[in-house]
Structure formats: C-alpha cells, structure tokens
Specification:
The protein contains 30 helices and 16 strands. The radius of gyration is 28 Å and the shape is globular. The strands form 5 sheets. The protein has an 8-stranded parallel β-sheet. A two-stranded antiparallel sheet has the order 1-2. A two-stranded antiparallel sheet has the order 3-4. The chain is α/β, with parallel strands linked by helices and 716 residues long. Helix content is 39%, strand content 9%.
Length: 716
Amino acid sequence: MKQLPPHFTGEFGHTMDESSSEVEVKVSEDVSLPNTEVAVSDTSPLNTEEVHLTQEELVAKAIAPVKREYLRPRPVRPSSNGAIDVRVSEQKSISSNVVTENKKSKRQLKRERRQEQKSSLHICPEVAKTGTVSSCRYGDNCRFSHDLEAFKAQKPADLEGNCPFASLEKPCPYGVACRFSGSHKDGAPAETLGVQKMSYEMNGLNKDVQKLLWKNKMCFSRADAQLKCLGLSGQAKSKSKTIETKNESDQDVLNGSIVCHEDNDKEVGDSDKATDCTPEVPSEQDMDVQSDDLRPQKKAKIPVDENCCFSEVDNGSTLSGNDFEENNVKSEAETKPSDTFLTETDMSLKLHPREKKLIDFGGKLYLAPLTTVGNLPFRRVCRVLGADITCGEMAMCTNLLQGQASEWALLRRHSSEDLFGVQICGAYPDTIARTIDLIDRECTVDFIDINMGCPIDIVVNRGAGSSLLTKPMRMKSIIQAASGTVDTPITVKVRTAYFEGKNRIDSLISDIGQWGATAVTIHGRSRQQRYSKLANWDYIYQCTRKAPDSLQVLGNGDVFSHLDWNNHKSDCPELSTCMIARGALIKPWIFTEIKEQRHWDISSTERLNILKDFAHFGLEHWGSDNKGVETTRHFLLEWLSYTHRYIPVGLLDVIPQKLNWRAPSYFGRNDLETLMASESAADWIRISEMLLGKVPAGFTFAPKHKSNAYDSAENG
C-alpha cells in the first residue's frame, strides 16, 4: 500500500497499514474542527490506472493529475453520501406509506399549522424583539405564542460569536429569538465597534401588490397596450375564455400560461418570514383553501385586459369594483371609435430600440443566474471576490403573477450589487410582458433576462425554457412584447439548439437583435446535451461574428480559470464577455484570479473564511433566529456539494484544473483541506457545524442537484 506523505504521520497520529479497515481523521491544532470522527472504509487499493498513467494520458481521460504523494485509496461507501442518503431514502419510503394510508385534508393541515404556530416554538416576533408581552398590539388574537418563559426553556443554546446585526446602530430585529442573544446588551448588540455603512436589501414584495395579484386585479396597462399593438391581445382573450370554462379547482393557468408546480426548495427571503406581528388572518399557504372568497367573480364575456385592469391612483389606492366597472364602460364607449388613431399616435411616439437605455457588458465579470445556490448571500460573496455583474435566480412568471412570496424572494437585491438583473422564465408573450411590466414598477433592476435555454423537464414540458428554441415565432413575439413594454434593457439566454447536431441560433442571431434584445448569452451546449461533454465555443464564435453591431453576445460554458477567459476573449474579440456559472460555484475566487491574472493556490483557512462570510451574510438575509440558522445551513450544504470538486493548485501536476476533470481520492495538505475534498455529505455537515453549531436531532441532508447524464433516451 502506498504510504502517506511524511507530514501526515504527526497530524493523523498514525500511519495506515494493510490491516487497517478505517482511517480516523483527527483535529489539527490550527483548525477548530468539531470533536467528531469521520470513518472512511479503506479496503480498496489505489487505482492502478491513476498511478501508472502519465500526466498526458490522465488529462486525455479527463482524470485530474494529482501528485502521486497525495493520492490515497478510494473510500468505499454504501452511497455517494454515506448513511445520510440511506436515512433520507428510508424516511421518504416511510413518509410515502403514511401519506398513502392517512391522507389529510386541507382543513386538517390548516388546523395543524395554526396549532403549531401557537406552540412555544413560534414566539411572536414583536414579543421576541422587545421582550415584553404587552408590546404585541393584537393581544390574545395574535396567531403566535406569547409565552416567553416556555420559549426560552426549549430554545437551543446560543451560538459562539457576535450577532450578525452587531454592526448596525439599531437593536437586533430578532431579540430573544436570536441565536446570538447572549451577545446582546441592553437591547442592542454588544461590541458595536464602529458602525459600518448601512447595508440593505431591496425589491421586496409589497403586501398591497400581493393582495391584488392574489385577486387577479392587478393592472398591466403598458403590457396590454404593447400586446394590442403586436396583435397578440386576441390570443390572450381566447386563452382566457378557454380557462373560464374549466372548473376553478383545477385552475393551473394564469393569464394564458401554465403554472409551474415545483417542489424544489426556494430561497426564502425576509418577505417570506413573519417579521411583523399580525392577527389571525389567512396566511399565504391558506390561499388555496379560501380561493373562492378571494377571487373575483368571473364574467365570461369580459376580456382579460379589461377584467384585470383596475385603475391605480398615484398614492397606491384603487377604485372599488362598482365604480371601476361604471367608469370602464363609459371610457370604453368614449374611446372605442378612436382606438386606431391612438394606437398609431402611440406607436410614433415610442422610443426606437437604439434610443433606449443601454448597458455595457464589455469586459465585465458576469456571475450567471444559478438555481438554488445563486442566492443573495452567495452573490454577496462573489461581489467581494470581484464579480461585476450579478443576476438573481430564475423565477417563473406565473408564480410571480400569482404573488408567491417564495418566488418574489428570488428578485431580492443587496445594496452592494452595483449592476444587477433578474432572470424570468415563461412560455407565452402575454405572461412575460405582464411580468416584466410588474417587475419594472415594483423592483429596482438594471436589466431583465429572459431564459430560453433551461433544460429542466418540468420547464420544457410547459413550453418554456429551451422548448422555445423549437418555436422561433414564439421567441419573436416574446422578445418584441418584452422590449416594447419597458425601457429597461432586455437580454436573452439561449442554448445552441434543442437537439444536438441541429444548431440553429446562428440563423436567429441577427433577428434577435432586430426584435429588441440588448444582449444574448449563448450557452455552448444543446438542451439534449444538458451539462455533459464540453461547451462548443467554436459555434459561439460563429454566432458572435454573425450578430449585428447593436447586439452584444456573451459566451457561457466551462470557464474555470483566467486562461480560459483570456483564450475566449482573444479567439473572438467581438465577444462582449463570458458568463461564469459552475466555475463560480466550485471556486468563487475565480473572479479574483481573472482580475489579477494568476493561479491562486488558496489555503484551506482562506477557503473557510469565505464560508464564514457566506454564513454571516446568510444570517443577515434569512435571519439569526433558529429558522434562519437552519435555512442558512441548508444553502451552505447545497454550496458545499459543489466546492468539494475543487482541487488545490499545489496538489496538481498540470494547471489549471479543467471543469470536466474527475478528481481521484486524495489527501490535502492539512486536515481541513482533506475534509473539504470529501464527497460525503456527513463531512459537509461537519463543516457547517464549524460555522453554525450542532445540527438539530434527526437532521438529514441530500443535495438537490445531481449530475445530468446525456439525455439520449428521452430525446432521441
């Protein structure tokens, strides 16, 4: 058996021999690891292929050429995530059986939710903030518990360190519920050394707007006018008539577009959490139960653009239903003869696409919109490390138009994000136009990106994402409707094609600019290819050279070092910039490497400090109470499921590392570096415990994202 490097003998306390069945990774002196051990089965020998092949042969087989003195036997585990995945699968099977046997009604679930809210686990936010029961203005009608003593008795132990809100002048908004309440002093966080510049978040969902969206009474005047100019309003009316004939209990359609039901975990921002004490009113989750009371009475003969257009006064108030109907009938009778004239006049006064507000992507470091992991705290980390442009996670248009708080949380923006955009996904022009109209009014964004390349089945099956690549006329209608509705720059993200070998973006690239898009990002893979094989940058260059001068083209795919960035920019000077996606997930300091033009052999301590920043930003964003801590832990673990793929520069025979390289099993230069290279979810949990304390009893985790195989069976 191959011996460990000499410096491991002292740190691990022993060397491995042939009879040893497991390796106990102990805590090094310079890093405060938790007092736990990782048992690794070590019965398999070193991979002879990795040992005897030359560096060139390893690279040709996409195996990372790690220096031989750091290689170790491959660990043998029951699954990629150890016993945790086993527990998860067992729990899923048990829960599925329970659901089958005892399926609960919505009324029962609602009653249980309210009972849970009344338990001591859910203390009233106002009472927790002030520490006095009388501070809640709702008194006994409050839907949360007011029992401070019972809450303190079951509250987990405080975490080490200072409250994440210690840099602000105001007291901690979570009060006694804060997991760092021991550092509070006289109602304010202790050790407020030099108040930092106020950081804040924007683009929250206004409650009044949310109620209008729930009742389908929101006005989309600009979007409807643009759809009428393009001759698309008739399609919206016909879709609405079809919808109205269906049973209300089966309505999964909003404004002519199918609702995307997703069970995936969404980033829940502050708007999704109860930061204010409210009386016992129907919550967002209860809207389905009382949908009949909240939805307006539908009239079969009233078209969509008239039914949803409630005139809004500048101060935010709205007309009542009867007044609106009377005024609407009068105005319709008065303006009907001159509709054609007004349309022509409005068209002549519209801005030419070249006169609109533009955004220059040239040479800027662009962090791609990333599902789940591309949350606000992660974007803050990337901003600190050098990212110039950030974009929120992909949000479904239908969910935004329904006022779902979890979907609106994806649009949140931090004050440190200087150049920020949001990405939306929809299947129909009217849905996307109204969403863009709403975002432009309610949010502060620099650009809006339309996703036409998402390969996920649940999106594609509803006619959105990369499914639009097979419908060029639908693409035209969407881009024209979006760009004509608002002055905010509209960008588009596409793939090379739907099926591999049938590239078609090069034939549409000139039209995309004429339709009104400011920029287009081309991911050098087809939908069928998913994320397998390498991105086709030659085809990206071909499309870039065919693009008109007014359209900026961005490339995306496999950028993992400053050399990749330099090569793409030098091979095609017409390329505006490169979008960085998985490279930033695995090593977010890639932005620093590109700006400083160097290979950063980052130490494990420096990597841990980056994770500490994420934890701090996460507690600021999701909250420092118990729920916020566990939400932060969840998204940290999702991120760690990517970061373990990074191989330190000092351990490689050939640099830089490529994104498609498979890493052999190896030891790091210290215990922490070895722990960070582990593929086991149990070790990721250990890292989270170093930053956020012990996990709750019965805690399990399975990563949401898994590698996508080549999709040949499904798509031919």
